[in-house]
Amino acid sequence: MIKPLGQRVLLEKVEVEKTTVSGIVLPDSVKEEKNIGKVVALGTGKKLDDGSRVEFDVKPGDRVVFSPYSTTETKVDGNEYLIIEEKEILAIID
Amino acid sequence: MIKPLGQRVLLEKVEVEKTTVSGIVLPDSVKEEKNIGKVVALGTGKKLDDGSRVEFDVKPGDRVVFSPYSTTETKVDGNEYLIIEEKEILAIID
Amino acid sequence: MIKPLGQRVLLEKVEVEKTTVSGIVLPDSVKEEKNIGKVVALGTGKKLDDGSRVEFDVKPGDRVVFSPYSTTETKVDGNEYLIIEEKEILAIID
Amino acid sequence: MIKPLGQRVLLEKVEVEKTTVSGIVLPDSVKEEKNIGKVVALGTGKKLDDGSRVEFDVKPGDRVVFSPYSTTETKVDGNEYLIIEEKEILAIID
Amino acid sequence: MIKPLGQRVLLEKVEVEKTTVSGIVLPDSVKEEKNIGKVVALGTGKKLDDGSRVEFDVKPGDRVVFSPYSTTETKVDGNEYLIIEEKEILAIID
Amino acid sequence: MIKPLGQRVLLEKVEVEKTTVSGIVLPDSVKEEKNIGKVVALGTGKKLDDGSRVEFDVKPGDRVVFSPYSTTETKVDGNEYLIIEEKEILAIID
Amino acid sequence: MIKPLGQRVLLEKVEVEKTTVSGIVLPDSVKEEKNIGKVVALGTGKKLDDGSRVEFDVKPGDRVVFSPYSTTETKVDGNEYLIIEEKEILAIID
Question: HAMAP family, alphabetically (chains A, B, C, D, E, F, G) (predicted)?
Fold first, then answer.
């Protein structure tokens, strides 16, 4: 398992079906990864001067939108993950 | 639905009719998106040290002017949105 | 109407007659916009920690010199405006 | 007249006679503007938290050396001026 | 031995077997170094104003993921090492 | 005379004889200016909040090594000078 | 002698024998200077507000690893030196 450090979050990429307004699912090749991912694990939390840790606004399982170019890709045991600072997560998709 | 995080705002693009001074509506192709949008949803608000959240100067429904190159585009359920930091919103159009 | 946010100011461009020292007005094409504008409206003022707002050094009607590359152009109801941070306004022309 | 804002200064360019050591004045084309200017007017002074204004180290009439690339040129009523932050003025020439 | 200074960490590169999902080990040439390393030694710790030193979140032996382009390579006694600031270590692989 | 402002220093370039180890003085063309200069005058000193001025670590007459690309050249009354922030002076040559 | 200023350190370059694992010393041309140097002299130490000076973590004679591109080269009395900020020294080689 991967345990992020500080105020970082571990994400899995979410592939978004590219569908036209009328609902036709387009072929794989045009799958849009409109910088959307799913939260897998939370980090240790940023250390504050008094020794406490900052809480997170997101939780495992949340589908989120993140800033492009703000993730580090890594591959462990064959699985691909993204590691991102929480402040680069822009929104939660209910 | 998309819930922005922190002091961010969710916008929809507003297409501005390109009209000459004499009022003739020009064809689609020259529709100017002079960085104008409509507020759809407000974020959770920036967390202050005392745990309170910063209030917003804009509200849902406001037509606003924003800095170019300061938005992240995303597409959810077929709808296109812009996510922006409130400090990049320059003015409200009454 | 456009209401700037924070310590921003709404300007109109001022076209400066390009005249030689001897007073001959040169043709339109060489009209110099030596980054000079006229104040149209003041923003809401920057919020201070105690909730008060910062006052402005400029006022509507002032002719001002501003830093090049520091304005955002926008067009509303056919009129062109510039939106600028007050700190980028360099001087007032009496 | 031009009234600079904050800790800015209004300068006139000073053209320096390019002379060889033996005193021969070289033709116009090689007039060196080794970033030297003359102070024309002082700004309103930077506002401090207690409402007071920062004093200036230079005064009108001083010949000064300034950092290259740190001035904004403007032209008002046919006269060319430079507007500069005082901190970019490097030295006073007695 | 190499003793890092401040909040730095000494790492050894970890070569990751590039295997397809079905488990076939690919040839050397495609060994992926997906910015993964092993902690060899901790630094002296960042000095705080009261003279104490900041503790580390990682410990010797940990397998870690680090930001690309954030390490300095060095070679001592024939061994290759990476020196990195702890804040560039993104996660620990349990 | 030139009076630097703030924590700046006025330097003269020092031309360093390019000599081989065996002591042969090489021709003018390869005179190395390994960013070495001589202190000519000290500035007014940086103003502190309590109105006092910061002292200098260098004094007129010191031979010093300075960071490349950190000086502004100027020429007054036919003499060439360098103006530099004291923090860009790296060392004193005893 | 060269006396560095502030929290700077004077280094001499250390040439590292490029040897293969089996111990064969490679020719001069491939001498690796894997950014390793020897401490020659310590600076005056960074001035703190209370007038005291910051202590150094390194001492003359230490062999150290430093960040590439963080040194200024200079040559005095025929000897080549490197001047570096202590914070760019990454580790001490025991």
Answer: CH10
Give me the pLDDT at residue B34, please.
Answer: 65
Residue with tokens 């980090």: A43
Chain E nearest C-alpha distance from G78 (Å):
28
Per-residue pLDDT for F19 more than 80?
no
Q: Does F83 touch chain D (CB under 8 A)?
A: yes
User: Does any CB of chain C come closer than 8 Å to the CB of residue D73?
Assistant: yes
Minimal CA separation from C12 to chain B, in Å = 15
Chains sharing 3 or more CB pairs under 8 A with chain G: E, F
Burial B50-77 (b: 16+ CB within 10 A, else e): eeeeeebbbeeebbbbbeeeebbebebe
* pLDDT on residue G26: 56
Strand-pair partners of D48: none
What are the structural domains, with CATH classification, of chain D? Answer: 8-93 (2.30.33.40)
CB within 8 A of G68, min separation 6: which ones? E72, G35
Distance CA A92, CA A63 (A): 6
| E83 vs F48: which has the higher pLDDT | E83
What is the pLDDT confidence band of residue G29, given thresholds at 50, 70 and 90?
A: very low
Q: Mean pLDDT over residues B51-55, rounded? A: 90
- The average pLDDT across B16-42 equals 67
- Tens of pLDDT, residue by residue over F56-83, are 999 999 999 999 899 999 988 888 999 9
**Chain E CB within 8 Å of residue G89 CB:** yes
Is residue G31's pLDDT more than 50? no
Give the SS3 label for residue D29. helix
Q: 3-class secondary structure for chain F?
A: CEEECCCEEEEEECCECCECCCCCECCHHHCECCCEEEEEEECCCCECCCCCECCCCCCCCCEEEECCCCEEEEEECCEEEEEEEHHHEEEEEC
Cβ partners under 8 Å of residue C16, min gap 6: C31, C32, C33, C34, C36, D75
- B79 vs A contacts (CB less than 8 Å): none
Residue C26 has pLDDT above 80, yes or no: no
Diameter over CA atoms, chain F: 55
